[in-house]
Write a structure and sequence with these properties.
alpha+beta, 5-stranded antiparallel beta sheet
Length: 710
């Protein structure tokens, strides 16, 4: 196995044959097969792994290696179609693994014919119009696609066999591509789900082509495609892109916990960023890269239209640039090529949209596991480099020019050295969080002779934050240093840097409270949190900033007015909630003010044993402490609705939180908290509409708030 595969195999206990599926050499030895080379790999952690292997000496005798769970393997093993007849499948019962010849691919009808002597020759003649054709295997994606080069002395045609689900889209894409100057179709077989094209002359653009004029031509050609009137049935929406990124988040931990941790904030930033960029659909190639382009007599021909769709044109540009980045990381000289491509695109279409950077980052994230599928020994190192590139792209924020400097190792190393007593031997920089145009959180992993420590840097678009570091120091002086007797703390300030304007704090250990919330879970973390919030309120650290009930009313009014305008079918109910909540706020009498967090919810709390850390006090102000209590409880209600379809799912945690608070600061006005809890929950109606993974809670939130006001 490759060096990093052992960890994946050890984690995936559901697939006993995964080791053999990942190791072609071990598999062929174990099953007494001829030497074979890997062509393709599709891995669904804990579910299945499918590899395609081709004979080392060439030929059409490819096989599919399929690793199953034990339950699924029992079903597969009982199939007669793979056991009977000539050239049957080979089974490895101990590994729950089947080795299936290409001619037995259940989903590729064309492959079953093309591998069958006379029948295959007859089908090729029908598709290409010529009987003089010997097929050569180029690609085989098990159950999805087979790609053949056909010709004796020189290539004459390209033939593809598809599964039923993909054939219609591929045929539609082929016709659109042909209309736009791509390879002409020679023939098709709906019965066998096959297409054939004339083999095109030309030189692949792939970065071996250094002629910048060719790259500008490609940019102009792509722009004309995006402006064409051609349409296809397939669409790629923002919801589709959000689902792609969510699926990546789900699967990455199975590959590498470290990669998943570093990718998580980048995925979140791209998801949020794309949600805020308008999508004006146009015809897109759908899988655009330099190896999809041929240059011939000064013209660019774009090939392989299988994934043509109506979608964001920036998606093609981002995909193209991401593939260039991979080439760059592999040591290919690509200097100037991306700029030439962009210039050509701009000549025909004007500057690309604001979404290009986000689509560039999205495409790079999608490539994170590609090195594993390609069986690269260094795939994890390669994935880390891709993530660094994603972070660099996201740091190119016009509203935050200082972010680029804050992520530059050469800039930050001497600046951090001033704040770190020991000599820094190594420095790693991660973009932990980024809200484009507003703020960023950076993680500086510093290695000295004394060991490794992590320092967080906070950066704002509107300039340096001079108040929060002072606040942290004052709160720690009042006992919020996580030490006995209360074990409640805010992170220690490690320094303030003038340029780039960011302040530094220790990264504390522990688990986010959010990860500990479950209807059947332990309630003691919630109780700790209630006590910790009370300690914050009791610290009596005064600041100039104030937050009043009028401010609460204004935020609620704006949020629900926006939601009402965006959701006309629910406008009457939303307006009734806004009116009732506003009247309840007006009925509240004056309250004693203290220092409040002002944005207190479970993601702002880290539990480390008996220690409770309070985070992100950037909005700290003098105000009614019931605002913090109510906001936290409303977030528990929303969390219950979002994850468990029940606003009361975390009622035990809510009760424990209140009990923990009352144990430190008794005599809370629970009626006042109930009003402000409704106000905070009502604000979530608009938040659910604009945060990608919360849209399913909008109507339940409206209904729940409506019940609360009646």
């Amino acid at each position: 196995m490759l060096p990093n595969d052992a960890d994946i195999v050890a984690r995936d206990t559901n697939l006993p044959g995964l080791r053999l599926a990942l190791d072609a050499s071990a598999l062929t030895t174990e099953l007494n097969l001829p030497p074979m080379n890997p062509l393709y790999l599709r891995y669904k952690p804990q579910t299945s792994c499918t590899a395609a292997l081709a004979p080392a000496g060439g030929g059409m005798d490819a096989v599919a290696v399929m690793a199953y769970t034990s339950e699924r393997y029992k079903e597969v093993r009982a199939r007669g179609e793979w056991r009977n007849g000539s050239n049957p499948a080979i089974y490895h019962d101990a590994g729950c693994l089947a080795v299936v010849p290409l001619s037995r691919d259940r989903d590729l009808k064309g492959a079953r014919v093309l591998t069958d002597g006379q029948r295959g020759a007859a089908l090729l003649k029908k598709l290409t119009g010529s009987a003089d054709g010997i097929p050569h295997l180029l690609r085989y994606k098990v159950g999805r696609r087979l790609v053949l080069q056909v010709g004796t002395s020189q290539p004459a045609a390209l033939v593809k066999a598809y599964n039923k689900a993909d054939f219609a889209a591929a045929l539609e894409g082929a016709r659109v591509g042909q209309a736009l100057g791509s390879a002409p179709l020679l023939g098709k077989s709906r019965r066998h789900q096959c297409l054939a094209w004339r083999w095109l002359d030309g030189v692949p653009l792939c970065p071996q082509t250094r002629d910048l004029s060719a790259w500008r031509t490609v940019g102009r050609t792509l722009a004309r495609i995006h402006q064409s009137s051609q349409e296809v049935t397939t669409t790629v929406t923002r919801d589709d892109e959000r689902a792609e990124l969510a699926a990546l988040s789900d699967v990455l931990p199975q590959y590498s916990a470290d990669i998943a941790e570093k990718a998580a904030p980048l995925i979140a930033a791209v998801t949020a960023g794309l949600a805020g960029v308008a999508n004006t659909p146009a015809l897109i190639h759908g899988d655009f890269s330099a190896d999809q382009v041929l240059i011939h007599e000064g013209q660019a021909t774009i090939i392989d239209w299988d994934r043509a769709a109506m979608g964001d044109p920036a998606r093609d540009i981002g995909s193209f640039l991401a593939r260039l980045d991979v080439q760059m990381l592999d040591g290919v000289d690509v200097v100037g090529l991306a700029d030439a491509f962009r210039d050509g695109y701009a000549e025909s279409s004007g500057p690309a949209s604001d979404g290009v950077a986000l689509q560039h980052a999205r495409a790079l994230l999608a490539l994170t596991t590609e090195g594993f599928r390609q069986r690269r020994p260094d795939w994890q190192q390669h994935a880390h480099l891709l993530l660094q590139r994603v972070a660099a792209i996201l740091s190119d924020d016009p509203a935050m020019p200082a972010l680029t400097a804050a992520m530059d190792r050469g800039v930050m190393l001497p600046l951090l050295q001033r704040e770190i007593p020991s000599t820094i031997n190594d420095l790693e920089i991660d973009l932990a969080r980024h809200k484009a145009g507003r703020r960023a959180l950076l993680r500086y992993r510093v290695t000295t002779d004394d060991g490794t420590q992590c320092v967080l840097g906070k950066l704002r678009a509107k300039g340096p934050d001079t108040r929060t570091p002072v606040l942290h120091t004052a709160l720690r002086a009042r006992g919020l240093d996580a030490q006995a007797p209360h074990y409640v703390g805010v992170p220690q300030v490690r320094g303030v840097i003038a340029a780039p304007a960011l302040w530094l704090q220790d990264e504390v250990s522990g688990r986010l409270l959010t990860t500990l919330l479950h209807p059947d879970g332990d309630t003691s973390p919630a109780a700790q949190t209630g006590a910790a919030l009370a300690r914050l309120h009791a610290a009596e650290v005064q600041v100039k900033r104030k937050w009043s009930m009028e401010n609460e009313q204004d935020v609620l009014t704006r949020a629900l007015a926006t939601a009402s305008a965006a959701l006309p079918q629910q406008a009457v109910k939303i307006d009734e909630i806004a009116k009732a909540a506003g009247e309840l706020i007006q009925m509240l009498g004056p309250a004693k003010t203290t220092g409040i967090h002002r944005d207190f919810y479970p993601d702002q709390v880290i539990i480390d044993g008996k220690k409770t850390w309070l985070l992100d006090l950037d909005l700290y102000a003098m105000g009614d402490p019931a605002i913090d209590v109510a906001n936290f409880l409303a977030h528990l209600d929303e969390h219950g609705l979002r994850h468990f379809d029940d606003a009361a799912a975390l009622s035990a945690q809510a009760a424990a939180f209140i009990a923990g608070y009352d144990a430190v600061l008794p005599k809370m006005d629970h009626d006042r908290v109930a009003v402000l809890r409704l106000v905070s929950l009502a604000r979530h109606i608009n938040l659910s509409r604009i945060i990608p993974d919360r849209s399913h809670t909008t109507l339940p939130l409206i209904e729940h708030c409506t019940r609360l006001i009646t």
